[in-house]
Amino acid sequence: MKKKELRKRLRKLGFRWDDYNLNGVFFYVYTGYVLKHKNGRWEVYYIERTIRNLVGIFEKEEDACDFFYKSYIQVFGNSKYRNSAFQIKFIAFLRVFNIVLAGAVILYFVYSFFNG
Fold first, then answer.
1. Domain segments of the chain as ranges
2. CB 47 within 8 A of CB 26
3. Residue 33 DSSP code
4. At 55, is the secondary structure helix, strand, or coil?
5. How far apart are CA 2 and CA 49, in angstroms?
6. H/E element holding 69?
7. What residues are paired with 37 via a beta bridge?
8. Fewer C-beta neighbours within 10 Å, C or N terminus of the chain?
9. Rounded CA gap, 88 and 110, in Å?
């Protein structure tokens, strides 16, 4: 599978977004997996308490994604690491709400600035 399919599978199963990253970004994964494309190769890292452990290097994206998925399911397949469908929808609602609220605050300050 490719990265796009891997992302879809993990989201469909309801895994928490902060337990993995598929773009090579380490800073918000405290414990989980990171997939990184570097110098034409695919690297899979397991992060534990922000300490990086390189667990696999692959030439093909498909091989890296398959390894990532199998490893991730083995460690995080337990239901306590998954979000329920309600939680996923609620998180999406909160993100939209935050965007709308931020927009309202910006509009308020712009309005206050120009109307004294």
1. 3-82, 84-116
2. yes
3. E
4. strand
5. 27
6. helix 61-76
7. 42
8. C
9. 33
30, 21 Cβ separation under 8 angstroms? no
Residue 54 CA neighbour count, 13 Å, CB half: 9
Distance from C-alpha of 72 to C-alpha of 29, rounded to nearest angstrom: 13
pLDDT in tens, 19-78: 899 999 888 788 889 999 999 999 999 998 889 999 999 999 999 999 999 999 888 876
Q: Are 16 and 77 in contact (CB under 8 A)?
A: no
CB 21 within 8 A of CB 29: yes
Strand order in the sheet with 31-38: 20-21, 31-38, 41-48, 51-58
Which secondary-structure segment (H or E) carries 48?
Answer: strand 41-48
